Amino acid sequence: MRAYLLRRILFFLPTLFIITLLSFLISQCAPGDPVEQMLTGRSGGGEEQLAEKQASRRLYLEKRHELGLDLPIFYFSIVPLAEPETLYRIPFRPVQEALERLTYEFGNWPKVQAYYQAYLQLDSAFYASLGDTTWGERRTEVRALLTLLPQEKRYSEIQYLLRRMEPLLLPYLRPYYEAVKQAVEELPRTSQRWRLYIPTIHWHGTQNQYHRWLVGLMKGDFGISYQDKRPIGEKLLDAVKWSLVINFVSLLLAYVVAIPLGVLAGVRRGSFFDRGIGLILFMLESLPPFWVGTMAVVFLCGGDFLALFPPGGVQSTEFSDQWSIGRKLLDWSYHLILPVLIGTYGAWAFLSRQMRAAILENLHQDYVRTARAKGLPEWLVIWKHAFRNSLIPIITLLASVLPAMISGSVILETIFSIPGMGYLSYGAMTARDYPVIIAVFTIGAVLTLIGLLIGDILYAIADPRISYARRG
Amino acid sequence: MVERGKNRIEPLRGALWVLVSLWVAACSGSRPAEPNLYVSDQTTPTRGDWVVIATIADPGNLNPTNATGADAQYIQSHIFASLLWVDPRDTNYPYVPMLAVGLPQVSPDGLRYTFELHPAARWDNGEPVTAKDVEFSFKVVKNPLVDCGPLRPYYEFVEDVVIEPKNPRKFMVVTNRKYMLALPSIASLFILPRYIYDPEDLMARYSIRQLNREGAKLRNDPNIRRFAERYNAMQRLPHHIVGCGPYALEEWVTGQQVVLRRKQNWWGDTLKGIAYEAYPDRIIYRVFKDPTTAITALKARELDVMDAIPAKEFVQLRKNPAFLAHFRLETPPTFAYSYIGLNMRPQGRPPIFTDRRVRRAFAHIVDVDMIIRKFSYGLAQRITGPLYPMHRGAYNDALPPIPYDPHKAAQLLDEAGWQDMDEDGVREKIIDGKKIPLEFEILINSSSETAIQMAQIFKQEADKIGMKINIVTLEWSVYLERIKKHDFDAYIGGWIGSHSPQDLKQIWHTSSWAEGGSNYVGFGNAQTDALIDAIREELDEAKRNSMYRLFHKIVYDEQPYVFLTSPLARIAIHRRFRNAYTSAIRPGYFPAGFWTPTNLVRYGKKDS
Q: Quick one: pLDDT at residue B338?
């Protein structure tokens, strides 16, 4: 048993690592620029021209540095020889993508870089010339062309943009322009496509985004939420207590109701009770909770019909800290009873059918006959012998329940305005708050692992026939 | 209070719209009789009672400068005070005194604004509010490490605050240029208590001029850093969210409710004026993410106020006498509109909307009245340009809406040289020797159900006149990225503005097309740019309005957008409240002014 556990835990660690890696990769694939997300509302119009543009660009770069987004993504990268290893240093995602594309087309990063450098010089020369009155109407056009140029991936389009820019420029910008043009023209001439087919490894060390994120994670630092700039750990802590309470009560209720029903149905197989319960439970299961939840809110919470329950929330408007603990508990239960019930009934059919099937199987076993032959009363036969051995499938289910308990129900929590984990993740998803989504995802995955481990241990406890020791 | 949010693009919220027949809008005029359960002879306001308001999201962060959500701002407006207040009842939206005794004296060059603070104004610790606090509040915004990036550009023009040596309540705000929004920006800044936010007086070591000039260098300054770190972390706790407004943050249960408590002895109690109206003992914001649940809570009278009620539900509530017995439904106009943007300067895309006649032809196939009936249930108004009808002087009402007229559209396309040469049902035109079909993409944010349905109608209409529309739905951030890169032919979008004079620069100036502004469609030329700049610098309202009307006319003639609708707000307010006026100023209702006649008080009878 101990050896087995040790083995399981040894497997546990690499799995965990892969999970964190996956979450991280998914977060990398999220569309949009995280820095832009953090800085939304940043001044847009080109009012104070150079000063303002530089200010907002500086703000962008600082925020990017603060978030560690100017670091390489992982410990190492395996890329074609032609791949620009310093590409991650280039700010602004669209520019990064365009330069990457060009590198893949021509296999010559130094030349692409030279083009970008020449462009930067033209750009700053242009901004220095903004006050020049000889520009007239052309200035706007040039400004737009200059903004588009570094984001352009297609070589022919780059040439097209340059051709359009040419007649518009002021004479003293010509040398800068010529430099860019030359660098662009050099790209196909110095093409080194063979470099695309030779793989190479770059080692980045611990100064990378994944390491940073992982170390933070281990310290319980999940990052900062885009939405309200609060630490995510704090937000999760606020939310998890409600999900835990609701799901724990739901779980208890599910088992307390379903297990006896399942056992009784199994024992009285084929009776009116068995069929009746089966019919009712399956009817319940086929009613989707989001629909029942909405119906319950509309018809039972004082809107259009009865006012038996409060419409959402976890406590009354008048709730006060001065209330006695009993009154508080009463208020909370009054608010949570409906979501708990609706979150539970779907599990009854499933659990009780599982239980019934397991009991049926065990009732035909030899040891049950033996027990009966010994003259034990029927209830003892069922509840002491058959029941214990029928618990295995139920335990399997219990193991998968742990992550669900923490992660909460998105739909029910939203319908009933319960500020739990489901509600939090729903809010994060609608607001594209990726750090929160990834944190919830990672926690869910880790808890699933732990749940499975606990399940394995419980098997052994429930059923002495299962042993994890190596035979022989 | 002045809205800080500049225009921002907004996805048409993806509510579940269902097509209904036309009589819904028609019958909304004849409401059922409204019995009045809430009668009282009382005419003088009394304090007491609570107001419970539905809000769609937890405000998250209530830091006075760093909070970004609109919900947070509504809550803050009760806790913090600014120099002036806007009277929402008056449709000219005039400024009225709040912390300042009156409107500022403006120097003839329009660069210096002299204010005097009200002698009664006090912080919670009994100390008077002084010009030093005002200066400090500007410094907070200008501290380069304070997390208020979106707010900072609005105060860039503030050069200095000069305090009168003999009068600690009198000061002059010096600006570096003439700007029509200078007063709205200065007037709406929350004035912050130094003793709460800067007990060590760290910011006193720096002048505003220094923060302006040496912002970059000061980022590494230990005191600047120390202040910003402490200040940025002050987001949620009642003793961190402290201002000199009439309410204090009492309790905040995340995701549940935010409770504001009326201060017992507030300095404004003895003053007359709309800004000092604060009658409810508590204002409670309850979070309901699901609108159905919120409406149920409203019907159950667990809520007193709800706004942004989905239009479909709103028209149903209008026909529900049991509901109307307890609630009033209000539909003030809003400073927002939706439109179809047409790319006037396509780069590397077919030159379709470069021709004014083609843009106008598109406008003729959009049946806006039908859109208002079917998608807005009549709860929207038509607009003809980028200005709001509520700004009466500025809105050019001489311009007739462009009628739905497919015939005229076809005619315009013929004139513009688009003909169906190969008789495949789609028109073509020879441009630069190449035959280009009249086929284009319309970009839509995928979470906007309404926009998708609207686009399908446009597509059908366009088919009839030989124009082919391809609907492209994109995830919000991708959609935005493509629009910003001018990589579109047409898109459906929306803008939210505010009651202060509209700064047209962000959306209509050519510089905002060239580099990352919001002139996605590429509207404008030297003439319109000059007009926009002139409007920005004109402090005289009448002169500004005549320029606004001219600009409106130009945009109307050019049709860079097909203007769709400006939605009406949809607000329910409990009938026991008096003085519960509504306004186009967001959020549309002003709960601090609500009062309940003594016999109708519902909450908190014992504890006050």
A: 93
pLDDT of residue A238: 86
- Measured between CA atoms, the residue of chain A closest to residue B146 is A59
Binning chain A into helix, strand and coil, the percentages to the nearest 5 are: 70, 5, 25
- DSSP assigned state of A18: H
- SS3 annotation, A164-219: HHHHHCCHHHHHHHHHHHHHHHHHHHCCCHHHHHCEEEEECCCCCHHHHHHHHHHC
Mean confidence (pLDDT) of chain A: 81
| Spans of chain B, pLDDT less than 50 | 1-34, 607-608
CB A222, CB A437: distance < 8 Å: no
Contact A419 B251 (CB under 8 A): no
DSSP state of B366: -
Give the confidence band of A468 by pLDDT, cuts at 50, 70, 90.
low
| pLDDT tens track for A205-250 | 888 888 888 888 888 788 888 777 788 888 888 888 888 888 888 8
Q: Rounded CA gap, B59 and B72, in Å?
A: 5
Query: Whole-prediction pTM value?
Result: 0.82
Question: pLDDT value at position A466?
Answer: 65
pLDDT at residue A469 in the model: 56
CA distance A275 to chain B (A): 36
Rounded (10°) angle between helices B406-415 and B356-364: 170
**Which H/E stretch holds residue B551?**
helix B541-558
- With vertex at residue B532, the alpha carbon angle to CA B529 and CA B533, rounded to the nearest 5 degrees, is 85
Phi then psi for residue B247, to 5 deg, are: -120, 150
Q: Does B515 touch chain A (CB under 8 A)?
A: yes
> Do residues B386 and B504 touch, judged by C-beta distance below 8 A?
yes
Rounded Cα gap, residues A177 and B377, in angstroms:
56
Picking from B8, B286, B515, the nearest residue to A143 by CB comes out as B515
The 10s digit of each residue's pLDDT in B373-395 is 999 999 999 999 999 999 989 99
Q: State the number of CA atoms in the 13 A half-sphere of B344 facing the CB.
A: 24
Query: B517 to chain A: which residues are within 8 Å by CB?
Result: 44-46
Contact B191, B83 (CB under 8 A): yes
Q: Provide DSSP, B557-571.
A: HH-SEEE-EEEBP-E
Both tokens of B546, joined, read 């005549």
* Residue A50 in this model has a pLDDT that exceeds 50: no
Which residues from B are below 8 Å from A318, CB to CB?
A: 603
By the 8 A CB rule, do B226 and B178 touch?
no
Which of B254, B296, B510 is the closest to A311 by Cβ? B296
Sign (positive or negative) of CA dihedral A112, A114, A117, A118: negative
A126 near A146, Cβ under 8 Å? yes
Token couple for B608: 């006050």
Task: Write the residue in A62, A318, A415 that is nearest to B293 by C-beta.
Answer: A415
Q: Can you spell out the DSSP letters for B449-463?
A: HHHHHHHHHHHHHHH
d(CA B70, CA A313): 22
Chain B closest CA to A298's CA: distance in Å? 6
B465 DSSP β-pair partners: none
Q: Give the residue-averaged pLDDT of A134-143.
A: 79
As a whole number of angstroms, the distance between CA A273 and CA B310 comes to: 47
SS3 state at B51: strand
Distance from C-alpha of A451 to C-alpha of A407, rounded to nearest angstrom:
13
Q: Which residue of A has its CA nearest to B291?
A: A415
**Looking at the DSSP assignment, which residues form a beta bridge with residue B337?**
B495
Which residues of B, range 416-435, sit inside 8 Å of A by Cβ? none
Count CB pairs under 8 A between chains A and B. Answer: 193
